[in-house]
Amino acid sequence: MWGAVIVIGLGTYLTRLSFIGAFGERQMPPWLGRPLRYVAPAVLGAIVLPAVVMPDGVVDFSPATNPRFVAGLIAMAVAIRFRNVTVVIAVGMAALWILDALL
Amino acid sequence: MENAATRSGLRDGGRVVLPLLLAIVPFGLVLGVTAAASEVVGGTLGIATSFIIFAGAAQLVTVQLLDAGSSLVVIVVTALIVNVRHLMYSAAMAPHFSEFPRRSRYVLPYLLTDQAFAVSMLRYETTEDPEYKRWYFIGSGMTLWVSWQLSTIAGVALGAQIPESLGLDFAIPLVFLVLLIPAVQTRPGLVAAIFGGLIAVAASGAPYSLGLVIGALSGVAAGVAAERLAER
């Protein structure tokens, strides 16, 4: 596990260094620049959606057995409005606990 | 003269990120809490990821996958895909960093986070002095670094006390949800996120926890395709 973390750390440093260090002032080629713009939304979507629609490994939209889906929708509305991590965590967690208690 | 640029750069850079700490501290706390709560990861390795990787999203994914018992190769690949966006930052910063002393050019990229990149690029548009630029980056980068380390450590300290029944692991997708909003402001970005999410759900049964990687790569392809279609 430590080895994996060290390799990730080294790889992360090298991507940060890339154009500043080794590649000098070479311009980013378009074939690389274009896909890179979509890495953030694609990765984040791939993390968030499974976590809210299938927390237990199967797709489940029922509020009774999967309160995380409804809590996620509420949190999304709050995130669009406020974009504030603290507010979204507070509202999302509170929604989950309330739904858990009710259902 | 040089001292004045050093001091004002350091001070301005340190100050400009202070409001961002409102977002960073809870993110670091969540990371620390989840690492400490995981029997596989634990607090020590959780804190170590903050020193060694120093990239929040990749760290959270790493902790999550380690906890799920995914294969180490897949964890490395997934985390590096999450972090490949730094190539973009590095390319944009390179012309400015080329004016810095050699040692800075190799040490400072370690501090090149989303936030340090955003505030520095904005400031560099209106300043010429390389010494000021360098210290502005150090001021913002170090403030973020110290806050990140302290909030991770605080999260680990808290994590040991929080019962699992609270479902605090749900805070992870909540953090990512907030990061997702600015990334989907363009139509191709939105397409990338939706495809990334749907394919990740469809591929969740893939072996070795490869679902995230498959979803992410499909999302990137969908985003590029959407941009091409829009150009026509």
Structural write-up:
- The complex is a heterodimer of chains A (103) and B (232).
- Chain A is mainly α and 103 residues long.
- Chain A has one domain.
- Helices cover 71% and strands 0% of the residues of chain A.
- In chain A, helix 4 runs antiparallel to helix 5.
- The longest helix of chain A is centred in the last third of the chain and has 18 residues.
- Chain A is elongated, with a radius of gyration of 19 Å.
- Chain B is mostly helical and 232 residues long.
- Chain B has twelve helices and no strands.
- In chain B, helix 2 runs parallel beside helix 9.
- The longest helix of chain B is centred in the middle third of the chain and has 30 residues.
- The chains are: A mainly alpha (103), B mainly alpha (232).
> What Rg of chain B, in angstroms, do the CA atoms define?
19 Å
Q: How much of the sequence of chain A is in beta strands?
A: under 5%
Helix content of chain B: over 70%
**Average pLDDT score of chain B:** 91
Largest interface: A-B, 68 and 91 residues
> Low-confidence segments of chain B, ≥5 residues, pLDDT <50?
none
Strand count, sense and closure of the main sheet of chain B? none
Order of helices and strands of chain A: HHHHH
Count all strands of chain A and give the number.
Answer: 0
Largest beta-sheet characterization of chain A: none
The CA-CA distance between the termini of chain A, in Å, is 38 Å
Can you write the helix and strand succession of chain B as a string?
Answer: HHHHHHHHHHHH
**Number of alpha- plus pi-helical segments of chain B:** 12
Specify the overall morphology of chain B: globular
Mean pLDDT of chain A: 90
SS element count, helices of chain A: 5
Rg over CA atoms of chain A: 19 Å
Query: What's the total count of β strands of chain B?
Result: 0
Characteristic key phrases:
heterodimer, A: 103 residues, mainly alpha, elongated, B: 232 residues, 12 helices, 76% helix
